[in-house]
Amino acid sequence: MSTRPEACLTGMKVLDLTQFEAGPSCTEALAWMGADVVKVENPKAGDPGRTAGGKPGQDAYYFLQYNANKRSLAVDLKSPRGVDLIKQMARHADVFCENFAPGAIERLGLGPDVIRAINPGIIYCQTKGFGAGSPFEKSLAFDMIAQAAGGLMSITGEEDGPPCKPGATIGDTGTGMLMAITVLAAYVRKLRTGEGEHLQLAMQDSILHYIRNSFTYMERTGKPAPRAGSKTVGGGNPPIGVYPCKGGGPNDYVYIYTSRANPEHWNRLLKVMGREDLIGDPNYATPEARTERREEVDAIVAAWTRQHDKHEAMHLVASATIPAGAVMDTMELANDKSFEERGIRQTMQHPVVGPYTMSGWPVRFSGRTPPISTAPLLGQHSEEALADWLGLDREELGKLRRDAVIGG
Amino acid sequence: MSTRPEACLTGMKVLDLTQFEAGPSCTEALAWMGADVVKVENPKAGDPGRTAGGKPGQDAYYFLQYNANKRSLAVDLKSPRGVDLIKQMARHADVFCENFAPGAIERLGLGPDVIRAINPGIIYCQTKGFGAGSPFEKSLAFDMIAQAAGGLMSITGEEDGPPCKPGATIGDTGTGMLMAITVLAAYVRKLRTGEGEHLQLAMQDSILHYIRNSFTYMERTGKPAPRAGSKTVGGGNPPIGVYPCKGGGPNDYVYIYTSRANPEHWNRLLKVMGREDLIGDPNYATPEARTERREEVDAIVAAWTRQHDKHEAMHLVASATIPAGAVMDTMELANDKSFEERGIRQTMQHPVVGPYTMSGWPVRFSGRTPPISTAPLLGQHSEEALADWLGLDREELGKLRRDAVIGG
Lengths: 408, 408
Fold this sequence. Notes:
In chain A, strand 7 and strand 8 form a beta hairpin. The first copy, chain A, has 17 helices and 13 strands.
């Protein structure tokens, strides 16, 4: 019995015309599950993500992270023979993905009508900033635009401060994940019935899926959900939020959450802090009382957290079965070897970049995460992919290369 | 040819022992794609999400949002006959999902070893706060704990402020989406080979997947990624971020993004702002120059945005092919009828709650999003689900109910 995660989607062929992050994060997820993802790139420079912040002459770490386990086919889509090659590939593909600017794929002659006519069983996927039928459907979008227009920035930031952008790329990777789920569901149907599908997803619309809790607040109060700093939308009942720890650095904080649903959290916390004297004190005994005296409660907790470093504070609070988490920064996470031991982060050897470590698919299959392989060099698999999918022979491939229809 | 999204996963049976959000968001996605999701709940109160912020006597909006399109089977898991019923259901299930506190499912006698021995072809899924093998694997976690310990809060907030919690529930729904992808991939393999799987996912580990861009910053600079307010991690080149608009309310801002990769964005923006006089001015001509004079650049842009409301500003900037987005609040999104016209938000009629509107699955299948049906009442489908999956007859069901093994 195989427990190789990469074997799950064996046989699934994905023709991947995506770039940057929203599209590539989707097809990368499929690649990690074992799909054969052939990334189609312009032979001159490839996915613009390849140069997003990287050193000259090598692929950027940005690109490496979103294109692991894929193959690269460099084809000139300005040449009719290049476009024809992609149409031939599309005949053999189960899935076609693109996230170009609105209208671009149609201008290339590879729009949904064209490709679905060639292969009615294909699952044709389009990711854009704004939805078809939205007043902004022709507008450009990047992750931060979707986060603004999708409501997420309005609920992120300090209570009295301006809207803030979450550090996570929910507009990009968040969107990619919703598309990946949908592609797989459509693929299950295709395996059963042979049907294709036309899937469309907008980044703005995806954000709504990730901020449903804030709609809960609105439904309850009739008001737009506000910003709440480190607290939950609506504020929650104290203690809740980040508390300062020893060290005083920008991330020397511990998050402590006492649940309204579990009144024991507060009493347990008082014990951890050596403040048994306050157990049962009516000034603090109920969530309502603590909310009324929020500043006092926060001061009591902070007086204790300041005496401990964040790891110690997390350990002490979490060990007493109260939800707690040290605020970890990216360097601390990268240096924490337990992520590598558990296969969440893995180290690869890239032929140009050398060794590098990245986060992979975090789900374990019988204890093991999918292995990561390095992102492809531009056009690294041009011949191989065309030979595999179309059965082109050495002579035909040589001619395509000499005529600069393919590159790499 | 069917274009009904809900038909994609026809025949897939999910036994759903999840609660709150991380688990339910996963199984709800499967339900929206057409899986038969039977939610197993305690007959006394059900999923604690049912009372999370709701009015007395009715299911909370929180619950409604994460449990659409499911059936509810209320079974007493403290009774051996109740546990046995779940084991019988597990024989017929393709997928088993749980996200109880660490160790709880094993104590119920429904752990992975037990269920996989009964049904080796089952896909058994566990979602926890921290990963098996992590020093915190036995600790409780909620969304905000994962956001703290997974690095996301360290990169969210004002540059000189404390760590901030994004308003999106990446720790919960973000995790649920990664599990949904993995379940579907494993299901594709199961359809082909009959193999089952044991899937495990930690909320802390999931966060790492959504903050990969911040690791790009770290890789480039050797420093932990900082907070950057409304700008991108690392700051980006100005203009970037939210700019204040007419009105002066908490969300009267427009996000403007000029890309380093496209120098024309700045020149186009100058034209939109009627500042053609600055085109080519060496003080602002390059991203480097603008970064050096960030305050001046921001002041120039804000002087213009303050003259327009955010919608107008977005329209003017986006129409000039520069990425822009008004900062929308949740009320504005809810009141924008284009989301309902496009099927992104839908209105339902609940037998107790009455009419309510919520966000559904935002992906369109040939132009149409999956229809939402109301979340089930507690135990609404107890008899129906047992009859469907196990073929129990009216007499057997009546006895189970009389003996309080099932409820609803």
